[in-house]
UniProtKB/TrEMBL annotation:
Belongs to the cytochrome P450 family. Its main location: endoplasmic reticulum. This is p450 domain containing protein. Its cofactor is heme. The chain crosses the membrane at residues 6-23. It comes from Asbolus verrucosus (Desert ironclad beetle). GO terms for cellular component: endoplasmic reticulum membrane. Pfam families: p450. Coiled coil: none annotated. CDD domains: CYP6-like. It is found in: Endoplasmic reticulum membrane; Microsome membrane. One of its GO terms (molecular function) is monooxygenase activity.
Length: 420
């Protein structure tokens, strides 16, 4: 008679065979399309080195990117098929000319599990994305940003105070710029003084650090699932951002909104702008704001705006420290501008061309995003090559590689040559 553990081995063996069959079947996709592809390995797809923690995602994809010289390469991430696009012409089609077919990003969105990320511009899909984008675009007009400048200048004063107080000390630049960025975004998006520069134990600073921290095992599996195993998001009811932090920000948003309405406070910040958008909605509006949808926009700005801004400033400061002549020239431009007007105004900042050059160069040299991804929302053919993309196929665009190629053509040009 068979003993119980023999039965378990047989069941496990059968299960592995079924899984092997399923993965092998889906792993034939690129071969059937007749384009170059990176041979998949079982359920790891093309990501064996990443899963074994031998390489980062960027290193794995960069190795594939460099290995092929074709306009695109088929890759597998687990058993998901992705098209790694290399040709600049095809990238332009995806991101510009035929953008209406590629508006969706390859990230899971489940309204009942995670309404905040569902209504965020990063994860929203199709008409939801179009509707939110149409509503939010006016928020970025120069007139609206100009009205927020006094709020930003208040944080600038706190930064000056902080630096004066710590004069002579060794400071962690990244930490200071993060405090400064969180103070600005909290003020402009949530209407609150987070006081990160004034208070070492600011609650909002903790929230900003935790919201998109994917360093723990559970959080890293969670974010991986959002991009590559969307079924796990539904099954395990995963949220993109840390739930406690997102709820904390949601409550701040709701309390501030309530206070604004009760006390008729006007601050010209994002809360005011969102509230005005809501109050001006008509019965014909396809997408109507409620508290959750409005808070989702503020939380998106908070998450998208703080690390990007602080890292960019940190990299720029690092380059300025290395290049004294550039630092001196920039300081001269800022001083002259201030002396002319006696203040920093929206217009005077726009006129600081050298400042713009320094920041643009910092972004070119240290691009913060490694890749963009887009999902095609219809069956689509690249006329140039005849490749047919099936609806819902994700395409990967390695921004860093494009910049690296560009960098190679500037190989003998130093930052100094570009900026001086
Ligand atoms: C140097 C600073 C920044 C960098 C490098 C940066 C980079 C990016 C990138 C690469 C994307 C994705 C674009 C795509 O998928 O095509 C993006 C989207 C976005 N960013 Fe930023 N960002 C920065 C600052 C900010 C700030 C300060 C905010 C808000 C206050 C913000 C809000 C957003 C939003 C809402 C989206 C989604 C747009 C949409 O889908 O329509 N970003 N950003």
């Amino acid at each position: 008679m068979m003993i119980w553990w023999e039965m378990i081995y047989i069941y496990l063996g059968c299960l592995l065979l079924v899984l092997y069959y399923l993965f092998s079947k889906s792993n034939n996709y690129w071969e059937s399309k007749g384009i170059p592809f990176e041979k998949p390995f079982l359920f790891f797809g093309s990501m064996y080195n990443l899963i074994m923690r031998k390489e980062s995602f960027f290193e794995t994809v960069r190795a594939i990117y460099k290995k092929y010289k074709t306009p695109y390469v088929g890759i597998y991430i687990f058993n998901q098929r992705h098209l790694l696009v290399r040709s600049p012409e095809l990238l332009k089609k995806i991101l510009v000319k035929d953008f209406d077919k590629f508006i969706n990003r390859n990230v899971a969105a489940n309204e009942s599990v995670d309404p905040i990320s569902f209504h965020s511009l990063f994860s929203a899909k199709d008409t939801t994305w179009r509707n939110i984008r149409a509503k939010m675009s006016p928020v970025f007009t120069s007139g609206k940003i100009k009205l927020m400048l006094p709020l930003m200048k208040e944080c600038g004063r706190d930064l000056t105070e902080y630096l004066t107080k710590n004069n002579g000390e060794t400071l962690d630049t990244r930490n200071v710029t993060k405090k400064y960025s969180v103070d600005i975004i909290s003020s402009c998006a949530f209407g609150i003084n987070s006081n990160c520069l004034k208070n070492e134990n600011s609650e909002i600073m903790k929230v900003a650090t935790k919201l998109l921290n994917f360093n723990t095992f559970v959080r890293s599996i969670s974010v991986l699932s959002f991009f590559f195993i969307p079924k796990f998001v539904d099954i395990f009811r995963l949220t993109f951002g840390d739930l406690t932090s997102a709820n904390y920000l949601m409550n701040i948003f709701k309390d501030t909104l309530k206070e604004r309405e009760e006390r008729k406070i006007v601050r010209h910040d994002l809360i005011d702008l969102l509230n005005n958008l809501k109050n001006n909605e008509t019965v014909d509006d396809e997408y109507k704001f409620d508290d959750i949808k409005m808070a989702a926009q503020a939380i998106t700005f908070f998450a998208a705006g703080n690390d990007t801004t602080s890292s960019t400033i940190s990299f720029a400061l690092y380059e300025l420290a290395l290049n004294k002549e550039i630092q001196d020239r920039l300081r001269q431009e800022v001083r002259e501008s201030f002396d002319k007007v006696g203040d920093f105004t929206y217009e005077s900042i726009q006129e600081m061309i050298y400042l713009d050059m320094v920041l643009t160069e910092a972004l070119r040299k240290y691009p913060l995003t490694t890749s963009l991804n887009r999902v095609v929302n219809t069956d689509y053919t690249f006329e140039e090559t005849g490749l047919k993309l099936d609806k819902n196929l994700p395409a990967y665009i390695m921004i860093r590689n494009i910049i690296l190629i560009q960098r190679n053509s500037f190989q003998n040009v130093s930052v100094k040559d570009l900026l001086y």
